[in-house]
Amino acid sequence: MATNDNCSSSRTDLLDKKIPRPRSLVLHSYFRSSCAWRVRIALESKGLKYTYREVNIREDIPEGKQQHTDEFRALNPLSQVPVLQVYESGELVANLTQSMAIMEYIDESFSGVNLLPKDLLQRAQCRALCQLIVSGIQPIQNLGTLNKLEPDQRQEWARYFINKGFEALERMLSDRVFVTGCCISEQVTLADFCLVPQVYNARRFGVDMSRFPKIVAVDAHLATLEAFIRAHPSRQPDCPESFRKV
């Protein structure tokens, strides 16, 4: 099974604290979760090693619903992925939740490329794009929301809200993206990490992406970058063979 060289699969107990590295990270993830995906991109962009632990969040199969177990709720009472566990000298010091908070922790705690622009105005613009996606689009079309609808309503619902959000996002992106290939500047930022999983979802739900040339241009460029390739759902240990890229 194809895996990411920067992560290792582990099936030990969720609360196991015996990880023998001075400072180590454990990511509780589901391969196709948008929120976990963007965190994986952040980890890969910083070149960080981490342990990958599968949490099967599907509600329609017997081996799913792992986010609702007592063990996982001890990590995140909201029963959502991702959770990033931070260990120091083998001792658990934090269970971090919410992808934006996790990504900013990664950016501020580890050396390497900056994931937020240094310019304060660009930093605010970056966060605005992130929030448009993570608050204004993704939660309205995620699995938990769609499961509350009748099956024949789900695709139309998801397309409507993705289109609405992408119409705003397309207007907010500068024409410079056709040159830079990134949302804010020539360097990837958290906004790019949020965009890629949402484009994947848009295509999955049959959104006509020809209406959004700027978004398509950014996504196409980012798909060529190593960190984005390594973080892709098809590269994760829990990805079914039918989803894997050849």
From TrEMBL:
Record's GO cellular component, any one? mitochondrion
Q: Give a single Pfam family match.
A: GST_N_2
Lipid biosynthesis as a keyword? no
Quote the catalytic activity from the record. Answer: 4-maleylacetoacetate = 4-fumarylacetoacetate
Question: Domain GST N-terminal spans what residues?
Answer: 23-114
Domain GST C-terminal, chain residue ranges per copy: 119-241
What are the GO MF terms of this UniProt record? glutathione transferase activity; maleylacetoacetate isomerase activity
What are the record keywords, sorted? Phenylalanine catabolism, Tyrosine catabolism
Classification via PROSITE patterns: GST_CTER, GST_NTER
The prosthetic group or cofactor this protein requires is:
glutathione
The pathway is:
Amino-acid degradation; L-phenylalanine degradation; acetoacetate and fumarate from L-phenylalanine: step 5/6
CDD domains, A to Z: GST_C_Zeta (cd03191)
Its GO biological process annotations read: glutathione metabolic process; L-phenylalanine catabolic process; L-tyrosine catabolic process
EC number(s): the record gives 5.2.1.2
InterPro entries from the xrefs? Glutathione-S-Trfase_C-like, Glutathione-S-Trfase_C_sf, Glutathione_S-Trfase, Glutathione_S-Trfase_N, GST_Zeta, GST_Zeta_C, Thioredoxin-like_sf
Per its UniProt entry, which superkingdom is the organism in? Eukaryota
- Could you say which protein family the record assigns here? Belongs to the GST superfamily. Zeta family.
The name this protein carries in UniProt is: maleylacetoacetate isomerase
Q: Lineage from the top down?
A: Eukaryota, Metazoa, Ecdysozoa, Arthropoda, Chelicerata
